[in-house]
Write a structure and sequence with these properties.
The protein is α/β, with parallel strands linked by helices. The chain contains 6 helices and 26 strands. The strands form 6 sheets. Strands 14, 15, 17, 18, 20, 22, 24 and 25 form an 8-stranded parallel β-sheet that branches. Strands 5-4-1-6-11-8-12 form a 7-stranded mixed β-sheet, sandwiched between helices. Helix 4 packs across helix 5.
Length: 337
């Protein structure tokens, strides 16, 4: 019997670039376009062959991992999910090492702040040892890139190249035909002590695989979305709403409201006497009255009254009254001007 596909998502990082939202929740649970970053990440795998029987592996940090487990239990109760803990932030390869007991057979992985629009169905018939998803960009120097030969095979991965002649940026999504090969390469990486300032990067482990003769090719993506910074969350929210995640056509009649699509308003939210949109997501149980919202994300159970907000993200249970401007607020915050 063939081994089930493993879909692995490392999410142990502290999410410092998303503070204050990540003071009280892990970054995969940041609100985004009617769900969370994690919800959209999981949805992107639905074209994977064998998705219904795939087994997920989440690599969590030493704190707040219970929130991820609670979210999965509530929203995906029938999914097979194994959890591993990375007790210290020693890099990407170390995260996979902590999960090694679960890594057997074919494996697909993506970092938790990587969202791509891609059809994974080709994996059904692809016999190559590995695939790295890439996107050409004008200036790749702040990313990692894949160096390829004339047959399109990856020869090595290069972190933060010094020039722009090779612009195939790796987007943080990989496939390995045999997860055990990656685990063995990580073990060799640690033995050689290949690290940068104490962190073991996955690119170095993949380079060891390539040294050993494993074959990897690239797969280009047209759309690569980032969920790693506050500004990126807003930009990704805009894209998702413009590409099928808005629900304007299904909204009930709202009390004295002007709706400017695209927006997502949860069916349990209450919105009255307000101007909403464009590019606004309002979560479950939120209450908005007498306000104007543009380019904003409101997590569940927010309350916004007599306020004008733009370019803003509000965490859960936030209350804002009589405020005008831009806000990035963590859970349970109160602004009353």
């Amino acid at each position: 019997m063939p081994k089930p596909l493993k879909i692995v998502i490392p999410m142990a990082g502290y999410g410092t670039r998303l503070r204050p939202l990540t003071w009280s929740k892990p970054k995969p649970l940041i609100p985004l376009a009617g769900g969370t970053v994690l919800d959209h990440l999981l949805n992107m795998f639905r074209t994977v062959p064998g998705f219904d029987s795939a087994e997920f592996v989440f690599i969590l940090g030493p704190t707040m991992g219970d929130q991820i487990q609670d979210h999965m239990a509530e929203h995906y109760p029938d999914w097979h999910v194994d959890y591993a803990i990375q007790p210290e932030m020693k890099g990407q390869s170390d995260a996979f090492w902590q999960a090694r007991q679960f890594l057997h057979g074919p494996m697909l992985m993506a970092f938790s702040d990587t969202l791509i629009e891609n059809d994974f169905s080709f994996l059904q018939d692809d016999a190559i040892d590995g695939v790295a998803w890439v996107k050409p960009v004008p200036d790749p120097r702040r990313f990692g890139v894949a160096e390829v030969n004339d047959r399109g095979e990856v020869t090595r991965l290069i972190e933060k190249p010094q020039d722009i002649t090779n612009n195939l940026v790796v987007v943080g999504c990989y496939y390995f035909k045999e997860a055990e090969d990656l685990v063995a390469a990580i073990e060799e990486q640690v033995r050689r002590n290949v690290n940068l300032r104490g962190e073991f990067y996955l690119a170095d482990a993949i380079n060891i695989l390539l040294e050993q003769g494993k074959q990897m090719r690239t797969e280009k993506v047209d759309t690569w979305l980032d969920a790693g910074t506050l500004q990126a969350i807003l930009e990704t929210n805009q894209y998702l709403l413009e590409n099928g995640r808005e629900n304007t056509k299904f909204l009930p009649e709202l009390d004295q409201c002007d709706i400017h699509p695209p927006v997502f308003i949860h069916p349990t939210a209450r919105v009255s006497q307000s101007s909403i949109g464009p590019h606004v997501s309002i979560g479950a149980g939120a209450v908005v009255s007498g306000s104007s919202l543009k380019n904003a994300v409101l997590a569940p159970n927010c309350q916004v009254n007599a306020s004008t907000l733009a370019d803003s993200i509000l965490g859960q249970n936030v209350t804002v009254s009589e405020f005008s401007g831009k806000l990035f607020l963590g859970d349970d915050s109160v602004v009353n001007q």
